[in-house]
């Protein structure tokens, strides 16, 4: 008799369109009306396409509903979710779109998708307690000079050749005039994406503060980040990050010989 | 046996509640509706930020039921422990009055298939489900409810009637049953079962909650038709009748109105909940009259 595992494997293959003749024969053995697999397949596809739509609303508006559904169908077959928590489903969709030939006429599409991935991450990231200036002051003075930080899980940085933040805003606002006014050749943008009180903020940074933030958020020690920033303004940027609650942990780095003072 | 978590310190009164979806968060916060409890899909509150904060606010005013749709109790390969841990974390934060999952599977070879897929009703599947219910209950340190499925096909190698399968899971694990009246109706129509006999075969003491929802009828190419459990419309009249019959048999039970697709204004859901409350009130009156 067909084991539960064999049955589930065969059904999975049927739902993901990679049914081998063996799997198909196994299904035919146990399904009374075999064509009803398609009902489950449709429900599954609709649920996963909706999950992608929720995470990539601007992409959908840029390409249209039908194009999006067709691209999603191919993507779902290639990259079905590995977990039932779908808030981050489609993390590989931007890279998929980048290689998706029918979308080649929209060179900025993959970067808009990357921005939406960062926005989803910001929306759904776990809550975490920010490091306060007073906690930071509690680190030994010798440690403060070499501290490295853990960024809030909602924060990420992105750079793009295209003004993807302007495109994203105009598309979601259905502001055709703003969209028409965008100059794709206006130069690279560097963005910080984060969750604030009730919404996600997408902020443009200049190159130096962006490089400084990139180093800090990657956990590089403060002196290394300051060196990269090469600006006397860097301490002000750091103070702004701390005041905005962008760090959830800090510790002296490269300090194997020092007692740990890691923030809880 | 009567699971402690179901009839515990903080039981949900035997009245009607509604499924809370994101579309209604704001309306519910601005003007808390007169329903007895609210139920959410656990998977929608696993992240941080606004959704879970909203649910915490709702939780201050209403008992909350956490209804999981993704643990895949029927998967032969075992439970996704990371997912079970996320469920535990949501439960710790929300302190729900009830927690439930489905008699179904949705994960195979590590892939989540995003639908509640049918299980063969076999001894092997019964063992797998009972093992996973035990595992879920011991992780959460409470009893859960398991919901009877709606299905569109019967598997040829099934050997146990579904109602017996449900009763066996409850008897072996001590879990309760979330009796979905619409699912019973849909499956009975699709497979030619007797819906009333299905209800009658369930153990009264295990029923911790009732679900009601809308379904649709799909005409098939072969001339037949199929009931589809799409949660996209009002509860059908025949399902209301089966509900009233269930209340007659089991007495009043906390009852949830579910609506997941083409979600209407909150007022429509509330009207459905009021109708369920009317039927519960009528049953209570009947029982009082009989007792007198």
Folded structure, characterized:
- The complex is a heterodimer of chains A (264) and B (292).
- Chain A is mostly helical and 264 residues long.
- Chain A has a domain at 125-264.
- Helix content of chain A is 52%, strand content 11%.
- Chain A has helices at residues 4-15, 21-30, 37-55, 57-63, 65-78, 93-99, 109-124, 133-137, 141-144, 164-172, 176-180, 207-217, 222-229, 234-243, and strands at residues 147-151, 156-160, 189-195, 200-204, 247-252.
- In chain A, strands 2-3-4 form a 3-stranded antiparallel β-sheet, sandwiched between helices.
- In chain A, helix 1 crosses helix 2 (21-30), helix 4 packs across helix 5 (65-78) and helix 7 (109-124) crosses helix 10 (164-172).
- The radius of gyration of chain A is 24 Å and the shape is globular.
- With 292 residues, chain B is α/β, with parallel strands linked by helices.
- Chain B has a single domain, classed as Divalent-metal-dependent TIM barrel enzymes (TIM Barrel), CATH 3.20.20.
- In chain B, the strands form 3 sheets. An 8-stranded parallel beta barrel of chain B has the order 1-2-3-4-7-8-9-12, surrounded by 4 helices. In chain B, strands 5-6 form a two-stranded antiparallel sheet. In chain B, strands 10-11 form a two-stranded antiparallel ribbon.
- In chain B, helix 4 runs parallel beside helix 5 and helix 8 (237-250) packs parallel to helix 9.
- Chain B is globular and about 50 Å long.
- Chain B starts with 15 loop residues before the first strand and ends with a helix.
- Mean pLDDT of chain B is 95; it is low at 1-9.
- The chains are: A mainly alpha (264), B alpha/beta (292).
- The interface between A and B is large, with 44 and 47 residues.
């Amino acid at each position: 008799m067909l084991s539960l595992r064999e049955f589930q494997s065969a059904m999975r293959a049927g739902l993901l369109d990679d049914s081998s003749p063996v799997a198909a024969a196994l299904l035919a053995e146990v399904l009374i009306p075999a064509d009803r697999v398609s009902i489950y397949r449709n429900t599954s596809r609709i649920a996963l396409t909706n999950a992608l739509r929720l995470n990539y609303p601007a992409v959908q508006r840029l390409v249209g509903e039908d194009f999006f559904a067709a691209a999603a169908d191919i993507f779902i077959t290639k990259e079905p979710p590995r977990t039932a928590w779908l808030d981050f489903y489609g993390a590989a969709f931007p890279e998929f779109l980048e290689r998706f030939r029918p979308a080649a006429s929209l060179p900025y599409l993959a970067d808009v998708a990357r921005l939406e991935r960062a926005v989803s991450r910001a929306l759904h990231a776990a809550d975490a307690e920010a490091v306060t200036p007073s906690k930071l002051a509690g680190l030994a003075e010798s440690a403060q000079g070499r501290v490295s930080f853990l960024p809030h899980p909602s924060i990420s940085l992105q750079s793009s050749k295209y003004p993807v933040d302007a495109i994203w805003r105009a598309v979601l606002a259905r502001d055709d005039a703003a969209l028409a006014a965008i100059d794709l050749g206006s130069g690279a943008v560097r963005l910080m994406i984060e969750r604030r009180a009730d919404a996600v903020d997408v902020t443009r940074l200049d190159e130096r503060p962006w490089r400084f933030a990139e180093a800090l958020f990657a956990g590089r020690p403060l002196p290394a980040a300051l060196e990269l920033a090469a600006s006397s303004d860097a301490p002000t940027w750091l103070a702004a990050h701390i005041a905005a609650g962008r760090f959830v942990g800090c510790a002296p780095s490269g300090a194997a010989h020092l007692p740990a003072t890691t923030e809880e | 046996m009567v699971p402690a978590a179901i009839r515990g310190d903080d039981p949900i009164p035997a009245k009607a509640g509604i499924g809370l979806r994101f579309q209604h968060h704001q309306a519910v916060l601005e003007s808390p509706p007169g329903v007895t409890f609210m139920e959410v899909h656990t998977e929608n509150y696993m992240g941080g930020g606004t959704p879970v904060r909203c649910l915490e606010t709702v939780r201050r005013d209403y008992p909350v039921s956490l209804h999981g749709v993704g643990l895949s109790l029927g998967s032969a390969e075992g439970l996704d422990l990371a997912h079970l841990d996320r469920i535990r974390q949501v439960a710790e934060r929300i302190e729900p009055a009830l927690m439930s999952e489905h008699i179904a599977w949705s994960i195979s070879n590590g892939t989540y298939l995003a639908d509640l897929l049918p299980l063969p009703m076999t001894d092997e599947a019964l063992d797998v489900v009972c093992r996973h219910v035990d595992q879920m209950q011991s992780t959460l340190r409470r009893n859960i409810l398991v919901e009877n499925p709606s299905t569109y096909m019967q598997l040829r190698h099934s050997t146990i009637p579904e109602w017996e399968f449900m009763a066996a899971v409850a008897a072996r694990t001590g879990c309760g049953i979330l009796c979905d009246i619409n699912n019973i109706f849909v499956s009975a129509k699709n497979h030619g079962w007797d819906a009333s006999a299905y209800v009658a075969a369930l153990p009264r003491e295990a029923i911790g909650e009732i679900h009601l929802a809308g379904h649709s009828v799909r005409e098939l190419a072969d001339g037949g038709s199929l009931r589809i459990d799409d949660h996209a419309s009002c509860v059908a009249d025949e399902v209301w009748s089966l509900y009233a019959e269930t209340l007659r048999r089991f007495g009043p039970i906390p009852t949830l109105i579910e609506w997941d697709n083409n979600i209407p204004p909150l007022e429509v859901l509330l009207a459905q909940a009021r109708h369920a409350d009317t039927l519960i009130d009528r049953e209570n009156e009947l029982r009082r009259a009989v007792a007198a």
